[in-house]
Amino acid sequence: MKFFHTYYLFSLLLIPVFVLLYALLLKWKKKAYRSFGESSVISQLMPDVSTARPLLKFIIMMTALAFIIIAIARPQTGSKLDKVKRKGVDLMLLLDVSNSMLAEDIKPSRLVRAKQAISKLIDRLENDRIGLIVFAGKPYNQLPITTDFAAAKLFLTTVSTEMVPTQGTAIGAAIEMAQKSFNFKDKVRNKAIIIITDGENHEDDAVEATKSAAENGVYVHTIGMGLPDGAPIPILNKAGIATGFKQDAEGNTIVTKLDEQSLQEIASVGKGTYVRASNTDVGLNKIMDEIDKMEKKEYEAKTFSDYEDQFQYFVAFALILLIAEIFISERRSKWFRKLDIFGEKKSRKM
Question: Is the pTM of the predicted complex or chain greater than 0.70?
Answer without folding.
Answer: no
